Amino acid sequence: MVKGREENGRLIISLSDIIDSTNAKQVEKEIQEIQEAHPDDGIDLDCDKLQYASSAGLRVFLRLIQKVPDTKLINVHTEMYEILDMTGFTDLADVRKAYRVISVEGCEVIGRGANGEVYRIAPDTIVKVFLNPDALQDIHRERELARLAFVAGVPTAIPYDVVRIEDGGYGSVFELLNAKSFADLLNGGEKTPDEIAKRSIDLLKIIHSKEVQNDILPSMKEQVLSWAETAKECLDAEQYEKLRGLIAAVPEDSHLMHGDYHIKNVMDQNGESLLIDMDKLCHGYPIFELAFMYNAYVGFGLVDPENIVRFLGIPIETAHEIWRRSLTHYLGTEDAAAIDAVETKAKVIALTRLMRHEIRRDGMNREDGRKMIGTCREELGKLLPQVDTLIF
Q1: Cα torsion for 332, 335, 336, 337, to the nearest 10°?
Q2: Which residues contact 61 (CB under 8 A, 6 or more apart)?
Q3: pTM for the complete prediction?
Q4: DSSP for residue 166
Q5: Digit-coded pLDDT (tens) for 127-155
Q6: Is 206 helix (H, G, I), strand (E, B) or coil?
Q7: What is the DSSP string of 287-342?
Q8: Angle at 382 between CA 379 and CA 388, to 5 degrees
Q9: Looking only at Cα atoms, what is the longest distance across the chain?
């Protein structure tokens, strides 16, 4: 009925069968004996084999939580979770559902991002597997962000389940029947780069038309200012002051931004464009979003063009074409000078982000990292004298 073990500084107490008025006192006695042998540990009540707990069982849990506030209920099955939720117990304690286990071995990889990979596990189902094995908090946050975008009117794929991955880690499951990424449409010859760019920008303009409360999502301007602070060590004083001043002068903006927008994060489902990978949602001025897009299609390949091929799965020339056509559709002009001017502004932010990324990955102590940082520094040295504002 009750078993205990210590694991990673926490006391794991496994419960099984049924806890009701006939055995609640005995279960509580056994839990107390185990806990008193490990008085300094937080407690995880593992409910994986617990079938049911009556009100008498819930009172056992409540008294334990009052005694050891750092008590969690884990691996709680759906029926048991509904009881705990209905009684308000989920407001009193950290209660974590049991997750079904799936394997992604041999499954098609349809997308990759900074925080995870997206697999097709069935014709109508995909799963985003998070790289961080302890990503449950990130997963639940992304689910809330996806709901926020959906309610705001953005065509969004909503995750309907959280699963545990057989080889470790967790994932979010989406139902996407007959869905293909925009990258797949390109590779299959179903759409031209210009058609993909136009559809991509049509969706992006919907995203950017939505206003959100500033206290719900992070400010991209604040994040970019922190990137400049990190890059400061690799810039001369005049360059840094110019860069920081340009960013600081960008107006605060409450419009929604995706934060990682490219053809791997947009799906086609029966002719409808759907946004996925929502963990970087933020608010800000659109030049920041364009900077992210520049890196996805151009910047990541500055030192090694094959990085773009590996990341997006398309030829480097196609990636560059999508970037330029995306600017054309976003700005609503074929004027090369106007497009070049906005591209230059986006590159200033994009290069700052690339420098910060390499610096944080100890790039100064790696040959490829030093090369990327040096390239970004050289390019910024050319661009900063040309730019008086990041606004367009």
Answers
A1: -110
A2: 45, 53, 71, 73, 89, 93
A3: 0.78
A4: T
A5: 989 888 778 888 888 888 888 899 899 99
A6: helix
A7: HHHHHHHHHHHTGGGSS-THHHHHHHSS-HHHHHHHHHHHHHHHHT---HHHHHHH
A8: 115
A9: 81
